[in-house]
Design brief:
- A two-stranded antiparallel sheet has the order 1-2.
- Helix content is 61%, strand content 3%.
- The protein has one domain.
Length: 117
C-alpha cells in the first residue's frame, strides 16, 4: 500500500526527528567508538562507525515510514513499536548517553525535542 504524502508540517517534523536521532547516534558513537572506526556518515552528516551507521539508517527508515508522525508525542509513548526489542535497547542506550549531551552540542535541537515541537 503506497504511503500518502505528508503535509508540509508533518514532513518538516519527520525530517527534524530524523536529524535529532542521527545527531544523538553520532554523539554516542563519538563517545564510545574510536576515531579511526568512524568511516561512515550519519544522516545528519557526522562521522560514525559502521555499526552506528547501520542503526542510524534503521532509525531514519523507521521515522520515514512512521504512520503516526502527525499525532504522536514520542516513540516510547507510541502504541505501535516500530523497533524490534534488540534495536529498542540500542536506541535507549544511545538516548541515555546522548540526551544530556545534546544540550551542549545541539542546544536548540535538544530544547525542541524536549518540548515535543
Amino acid at each position: 500500500m503506497p504511503k500518502t504524502p505528508d503535509t508540509p508540517a508533518v514532513a518538516h517534523r519527520r525530517a527534524r526527528e530524523q536529524r535529532v536521532v542521527s545527531q544523538m547516534i553520532a554523539l554516542y558513537c563519538r563517545g564510545h567508538h574510536d576515531d579511526a572506526a568512524r568511516t561512515e556518515r550519519s544522516v545528519c552528516g557526522e562521522p560514525v562507525c559502521p555499526a552506528c551507521a547501520e542503526l542510524d539508517a534503521f532509525a531514519a527508515r523507521r521515522t520515514e515510514l512512521c504512520p503516526h508522525m502527525a499525532t504522536k508525542t514520542s516513540c516510547n509513548k507510541c502504541a505501535t513499536h516500530c523497533y524490534p526489542p534488540a534495536r529498542q535497547e540500542q536506541i535507549r542506550a544511545v538516548m541515555r548517553y546522548a540526551g544530556p549531551r545534546m544540550l551542549l552540542h545541539h542546544p536548540i535541537a535538544a530544547i525542541r525535542h524536549l518540548l515535543g515541537r
